[in-house]
Prior knowledge:
By secondary structure, the chain is α+β, with helices and mostly antiparallel strands. It has a single domain (2-73), classed as Alpha-Beta Plaits, CATH 3.30.70. It has helices spanning 30-34, 55-63, and strands at residues 2-3, 8-10, 17-21, 39-42, 45-48, 70-73. The strands form 2 sheets. Strands 1-2-3-6 form a 4-stranded antiparallel beta sheet, with helices on one face. The chain starts with a strand and ends with a strand.
Amino acid sequence: MQIDAHNFLLTEGTKMEVKWDQDVCSHAGVCVNSLPKVFKVEDGSFVIDTDAASEAEIRGTVSKCPSGALTIKD
């Protein structure tokens, strides 16, 4: 996991890579409420663990992000 110069959180798991744009995020909580083992806050930092759920579950949750801050890098 790393945050790049454009404030994107990039995560790498064995299944897929999810990108989170903190400047776009509305903090609605859809992701953390839908898949709390994947999308969570630890020590004040947003963490995405793509190994904690299936690709289908993660894609479903990302598609529900109301602000569009979560995207999947194919």
